[in-house]
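Support request from a user on the community tier.

User writes: "When I paste my structure tokens into the form, the page sometimes reloads and wipes my input. The last time it worked, I copied everything first. Here is what I submitted, just in case something in the input itself triggers the reload:"
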């Protein structure tokens, strides 16, 4: 009887030892997999950071290259009509980096208005912190007056000379944007400029997710 009990104990100990070794192997395997996963995650994160850093550096250089000469287009049916002026502007944004640029329209009755004092309007998120969420979702938008203030670095511009009727039509188009939600790529500062441009007869293209300075370059190229 005692020999049987001792044998059972030895078997139980052997089984327990095997289970512990098996459990340890599983833990070691999981730990190794976790280490590999963490290393891979660190490598991917570093690569993504370097790509982002390179992109921002390239952007900062490219959009600080002096803009092409400003362009003037006379859209009046008769040159004897009193001239009014719409200035379609793009510049670096009002922040230290200038990213991602800013687009606005200036309404004027004189040829060379003081931009920072002029009737310069853009369409922006109503709340500053909504700018990130607006990349994928609609947020409350607003017409921002005096939009040229702080937004004249590396300025690019297309000036449209229009009649009084065209000028009033553009103001009506502007007023219709007041209740719109804001969303990057569909209802943003660039699309606002596009609808104003279309309202006075400029040739336009659908901007999509286009940087402001790129869009003004396109407007100048096709008008």
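"...and here is what came back when it finally went through:"
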């Amino acid at each position: 009887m005692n020999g049987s009990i001792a044998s059972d104990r030895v078997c139980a100990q052997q089984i327990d030892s095997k289970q512990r070794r098996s459990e340890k192997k599983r833990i070691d395997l999981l730990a190794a997999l976790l280490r590999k996963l963490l290393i891979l995650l660190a490598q991917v994160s570093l690569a993504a950071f370097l790509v982002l850093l390179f992109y921002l550096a390239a952007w900062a250089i490219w959009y600080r290259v002096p803009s092409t000469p400003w362009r003037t287009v006379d859209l009046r049916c008769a040159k004897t009509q009193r001239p009014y002026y719409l200035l379609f502007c793009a510049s670096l944004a009002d922040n230290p980096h200038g990213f991602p640029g800013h687009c606005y329209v200036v309404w004027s009755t004189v040829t060379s208005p003081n931009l920072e004092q002029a009737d310069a309007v853009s369409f922006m998120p109503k709340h500053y912190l909504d700018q990130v969420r607006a990349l994928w979702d609609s947020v409350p938008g607003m017409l921002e007056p005096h939009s040229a203030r702080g937004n004249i670095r590396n300025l690019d511009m297309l000036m449209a000379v229009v009649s009084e009727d065209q000028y009033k039509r553009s103001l009506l188009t502007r007023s219709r944007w007041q209740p719109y939600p804001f969303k990057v790529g569909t209802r943003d500062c660039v699309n606002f400029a596009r609808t104003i441009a279309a309202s006075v007869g400029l040739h336009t293209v659908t901007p999509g997710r286009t940087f402001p300075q790129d869009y003004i370059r396109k407007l100048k190229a096709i008008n």
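Agent notes: The reload is a front-end session timeout and is unrelated to the input. The mean pLDDT is 83. The helical segments are 2-62, 130-133, 164-175, 189-199, 212-222. Escalated to web team.
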